[in-house]
Amino acid sequence: MSGAPQRVVATAPGKINLSLRVGAADERGYHALATVFQAVDLLETVEARLPQDPGALTLTVDSRVRGDVPVDASNLALRAAALLRAETGTTQGAALHITKRVPVAGGMGGGSADAAAALVALNRLWRLGLSDRELMLLGAGLGADVPFAVLGGTALGTGNGDQLQRVPAPAPLTWLLCAPGGHLATPEVFRAFDALAAQADAQPPRTPRADQHQLAALAAGDREAIARSLANELHEPAVHLRPDLQEILSALREHGALGAIVSGSGPTLAALVRDAQHGEEVSARVREDRGDLECTLTRSSPYGARIVAVD
Ligand code: C5P
User: Coil, strand or helix: which one is 175?
Assistant: First the structure.
């Protein structure tokens, strides 16, 4: 397994925040978080090939989900490539191709997964020899969720969500993910959080604390206790901007989901179900009233960004 690869393919997972506690914003407007991330088996794929024109960086996207994906220099996979070149001094190029399956601007870290998969793929294609730890540190400069997309599994995120500690989560969980259409911009949801806190004269803590009950429920593999512990402090601002999310969450619970939350900054909703069959039943019932919902079943995943093909 040496020599110069011509093509490397990597995948990286979308994520759900099983709990998300939000603290005060710093001078850059970034909020302190205590969050439990869980990777799911809904993957972004990034193929990186050595280009015809040796120094060129190009991008194409094949999206299997609704929504616009930027293909200019603002795309996180291209930014990951530019950052790797700046940090390592390499002048190599790449033709990147993303296959998107994680909802766009849906609160599931799809853009971050693109960046993570690009970092891992280019590290091999360009034979840079960086460790996962180094890729995670670089990724933090691209977005707060990028280090988790490199690590995967289940992890506690503190700082801005970029300081990670793996947590034991022995029970595989089945999730029904429902995308209600439309997008929520993460900065807008955090701004609504600040506005609602100011209105209520509430002072978000400087350092929010992790939900210890949830960590214990995960370690014990107690699905009912995990369901009870699902909580997201971006729920209120997300519902403030998208009131229909509340109805869908209520419908998911009424139709038998063990628990349901807004995923990250939304608008994707994540419902914990017993198994795939139970998830299909909940999905069918919820979609009787809301036929526009795009619902997908997935499972928690132990994997982060990883290489799946090298030629
Ligand atoms: O890090 P990322 O680019 O994903 O963040 C997008 C935006 O979400 C930030 O510009 C910021 O407005 C908000 N954010 C935040 N606090 C965090 C993470 C993100 O306020 N911990």
Answer: strand
Comparing CA positions, the residue from 285, 305, 72, 38 lying closest to residue 154 is: 38
3-state secondary structure of 93: coil
The total number of residues shown for the chain amounts to: 311
Per residue in 137-163, pLDDT tens? 999 999 999 999 999 999 999 999 999
> Could you tell which of 28, 190, 194 is best to mutate to test the pocket of ligand 1, judged by most ligand atoms within 8 Å of the CB?
190
Question: Which amino acid makes up residue 103?
Answer: P
Test site for ligand 1: of 108, 114, 145, 186, most ligand atoms within 8 A of the Cβ: 186
Q: C-alpha 257: how far from its chain's center?
A: 21
Compute the average pLDDT of residues 6-14.
98
Three-state secondary structure string covering 38-90 = EEEEEEEEEEEECCCCCCCEEEEEEECCCCCCCCCCCCHHHHHHHHHHHHHCC
CA dihedral in degrees (219, 220, 224, 229; nearest 10)? Answer: -40
pTM of the model: 0.96
Amino acid in the structure at residue 100: K
Alpha-carbon 121 to chain mean position: 18
Return d(Cα 157, Cα 232) in angstroms, integer: 14
pLDDT digits (tens, 9 = 90+) for 93-108: 999 999 999 988 889 9
Tokens linked to 240: 């403030």
pLDDT of residue 2: 56
Three-state secondary structure call for residue 260: strand
Q: Which amino acid is at 62?
A: D
| Identity of residue 151 | L
